[in-house]
């Protein structure tokens, strides 16, 4: 039951992270106020901790069942969620004036988010390949994770080249209008996996 609760919280974590990070990328001026910046970072850290907790409990359950290969896949998820939480924790330090958000730091944070997205993709690919039977929701989650990897890499390139969010908000927000549906689909497919684990007592992970 505890894993199912954590899966439900993980789905909410993905939703909150998506809203906060999408807003920060498209409308960075919204986070000019310290309270909003701190709130967004705190939300990101909380979501990261929830995701880490889910993967930790999943790994423990898989190890108890003797599914060592799948437990290794859960370790990949732990690493990715941990990296994502550390990126948001640095944002929290910036909000408290304990760190500076230089251009190099922004690029580093974007790199961390891309690595976290790659790790999440690695988790789903690993359980898809190593599970004896197909696990419900995994195929869609792989597709959603792949889209997120592409989006985070695009943001990384934009920050590394100095374009930042100005390219996304140019041309009357045309890039955002094109990319937003892809991001929404990716979010829906990722949340679907965690919702299945949370809602279905017969799901291979929640059983």
Walk me through this protein's architecture.
This protein is 80% helix and 0% strand. It has six helices and no strands. It is globular, with a radius of gyration of 17 Å. It starts with a helix and ends in an 8-residue tail after the last helix.
Termini gap: 9 Å
Amount of helix? over 70%
One letter per element, helices H and strands E, the order comes to HHHHHH
Care to count the β-strands?
0
> Can you give the mean pLDDT?
86
Main sheet summary: none
As residue ranges, the low-confidence spans are none
Task: Please indicate the percent range of residues in DSSP E strands (runs of 2 or more).
Answer: under 5%
Tell me the structural class: mainly alpha
Taking all Cα atoms into account, the compactness measure Rg is: 17 Å
Shape: globular
Number of helices: 6
Short description:
This protein has 207 residues and is mainly alpha-helical. It has helices spanning 2-26, 34-64, 68-95, 103-130, 138-161, 170-199.
Please supply descriptive tags for the structure shown above.
single chain; 207 residues; mainly alpha; globular
């Amino acid at each position: 039951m505890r894993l199912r609760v954590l899966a439900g919280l993980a789905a909410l974590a993905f939703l909150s992270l998506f809203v906060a990070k999408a807003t920060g990328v498209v409308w960075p001026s919204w986070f000019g106020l310290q309270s909003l910046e701190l709130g967004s970072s705190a939300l990101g850290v909380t979501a990261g901790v929830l995701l880490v907790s889910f993967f930790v409990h999943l790994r423990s359950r898989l190890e108890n069942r003797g599914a060592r290969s799948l437990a290794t896949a859960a370790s990949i998820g732990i690493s990715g969620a941990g990296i994502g939480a550390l990126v948001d924790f640095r944002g929290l330090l910036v909000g408290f004036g304990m760190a500076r958000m230089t251009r190099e730091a922004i690029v580093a944070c974007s790199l961390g988010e891309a690595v976290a997205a790659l790790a999440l993709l690695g988790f789903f690919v690993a359980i898809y390949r190593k599970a004896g039977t197909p696990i419900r929701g995994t195929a869609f989650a792989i597709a959603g994770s792949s889209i997120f990897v592409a989006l985070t890499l695009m943001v990384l390139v934009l920050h590394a080249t100095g374009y930042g969010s100005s390219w996304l908000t140019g041309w009357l927000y045309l890039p955002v209008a094109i990319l937003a549906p892809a991001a929404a689909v990716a979010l829906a497919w990722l949340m679907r996996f965690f919702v299945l684990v949370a809602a279905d007592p017969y799901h291979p992970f929640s059983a």
